[in-house]
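To close the section, here is one more complete example, presented without commentary so you can practise reading it yourself. The ligand is 2-acetamido-2-deoxy-beta-D-glucopyranose.
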Amino acid sequence: MSAAAPAAAPAAAPAQQQPAFRGVFGFIGGVVANAVSSIFIIMVVAAFVAQHVLDHKNTIAKTHSPEIVLARMLARFEAGSVIPPIEGYHVSRPDAVAMLQAVLRPNKVTRYPVVVGETGCGKTSAVLDAIRPNRTGIVYHIVGAELLVDVPKRLAGSLAFEFNQFTFTAGYFKDRGVEMEQVTSAAEPFKSWAILDLSLRDVAAQFKAKHGHVATLVIDAVDEIDKQGSELLHAIQKFAKSAADEQLLNVVLVTCDGSNLPALKESSAMTRARVVEVGDLTDQQAVTYLVRRDIHEDLAKRAVAEIAGGRLILLNNLADDLQFKTVEQISTQLSIQTADSLQDVIDYSEMHNATSAVHKSLCDLTHGALHINIVHRSLGKDLTKKLLATNINILAYHPNDTYTLHSRHVQRSVAALLNCTTP
Ligand SMILES: Nc1ncnc2c1ncn2[C@@H]1O[C@H](COP(=O)(O)OP(=O)(O)OP(=O)(O)O)[C@@H](O)[C@H]1O
Ligand SMILES: *[C@@H]1O[C@H](CO)[C@@H](O)[C@H](O)[C@H]1NC(C)=O
Ligand SMILES: *[C@@H]1O[C@H](CO)[C@@H](O)[C@H](O)[C@H]1NC(C)=O
Ligand SMILES: *[C@@H]1O[C@H](CO)[C@@H](O)[C@H](O)[C@H]1NC(C)=O
Ligand SMILES: *[C@@H]1O[C@H](CO)[C@@H](O)[C@H](O)[C@H]1NC(C)=O
Ligand SMILES: [Mg+2]
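Output:
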C-alpha cells in the first residue's frame, strides 16, 4: 500500500492550517491585523483558484449549464434581432408592413403563419420593415446557402444558443419526455435540430410566463432548406404547428411560393398554416421607385407598364439596365425567353390553335387571375406544374387559390405571341 501514504498527506494539510491561523489572529491586532488579513485574503483567493483549476470540469458544467445557455437565448428574444437600416431609395409599403406586423404580433396564436410571395417581390425587405420599429420579442433568421447539416447551427447562432456549451444530461431529456439516446443517436442535422427544438420550447415557455404573450421566431427563405431535402423543413413545420397548438411560440416561415408551396403542403402540418401573401408594389409605387433610382418619369412609366409592373427584383434590374438599353430592347429579350419557355412545355399546334383549351386559358390569364380549378381543368395538372416551375416562370400561384401569369412582361409577351384579343 505504497500509494496510500502520499495521498493522505495533502488531505491532512488544511486541517493542520486552520488552528495555526486561529492562533495568529488570537495574538495580534490593530495595524498588523490588517496586513495579516490581506495575506489571509490572498491565501484564500489562491486556494480558491487552485480549487477552480482542480475542478475545471465542474466549473464549466456550472457556468454552461442548461439554465445559463437558456438564459442567453431568452435575453436574445427579449432584446430582439438587430435589423439593418433601410436603403436610400426605399419605397414604403404601409399595407404590406401593417399586414406583416399583425402576423408578427398576433393577439392569439392559433395557426403558424407562412408568408409567401414571388421571388424578389420584397418579402425579406417587408418583413424587416415590419420588425424594425419594435424588435422586442422577435428573433429573425434567414437561411443562407449553407449546407443542410449546418442549418440548425446557423439558426442557433441567430438565437444566441451555444450547442458546444450545453451540458446534456439524461435527466434533461427525460424531463421533456425524450430519451437521451434518441437524440444523441440521430444523424445531423436532425440531432442539432432536436436539441434546438427542446431548448426553444423551454425558452418560449419562460418568455410567455414572464411577459404574458408569446415570442416570435421568423425563419426566412425556408425554400433554401427545401432545395436540399424537405425532411428538415417538415420537422421545422411540425415544430411550428405544435408551438401554435400549444400557444407557446409564434413561428413565422417565409418562402417563395411557386416552387415551395407544394413541398410545404406535403406536410400534414400545413393544415395548421395561415398563408399570407406579400404581393407586388402598385404601378404608381413602382414608378416612384424608378424615379428615385434616377430614371426619367416618362421612361419609368413605360418600363413599369410594359416590363416590371410592381415586381421589385425586376425594377431593381431595370434601374441598372435602362442606363444602357431601351425599353424595346429589354422587352424583346424577355419576350424571346417567354417564347422559349412556352415552346419547351406546350405543343406548338395547341398553343396557336385559337380554339384549343390551352390557348383559351392562357389568353384568359392575360386578363387576370383564374381559380386553380379552372386552370387545372383546361391545362391539366401536369402542364400547370411545368408552367409553375422556376426555370419556366410562366405561372404564379397565389394563396387565395388562384393563378396569374408570372409577371407583367410575361403577361404582355403571352398576349402578343398567342394573338390574344384585348378584353
Ligand atoms: N420597399 C422597397 N423599396 C426599395 N427596394 C426594395 C424594397 N423592397 C425590396 N427592395 C429591393 O428589391 C430586391 C428584392 O427584395 P427582397 O430581397 O426583399 O425580396 P424577396 O421577396 O425576399 O426575394 P427572395 O424571393 O429572393 O427571397 C432587393 O434588392 C431589395 O433591396
Ligand atoms: C414593443 O413591443 C413590446 C411587446 O409587444 C411592448 O411591450 C413594448 O411596449 C413595445 N415598445 C414600443 C416602444 O412600442
Ligand atoms: C384546333 O383545336 C380544335 C379543338 O381542340 C380542334 O377541333 C381542331 O382540329 C384544331 N385545329 C387544328 C388546325 O389543329
Ligand atoms: C387572388 O390574388 C391575386 C394575387 O394577389 C389577385 O390578383 C386576385 O385578384 C385575387 N383573386 C381573388 C378572387 O381574390
Ligand atoms: C395573329 O393575328 C394576325 C392578324 O390579326 C395574323 O396575321 C397572324 O397570323 C396571327 N398569328 C397567330 C400566331 O395566330
Ligand atoms: Mg427574401
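Once you have examined the C-alpha cells, check your reading against these statements. The chain is about 60% helix and 10% strand. The beta strands are 112-116, 138-142, 215-220, 249-255, 273-277, 370-371, 395-398, 402-405.
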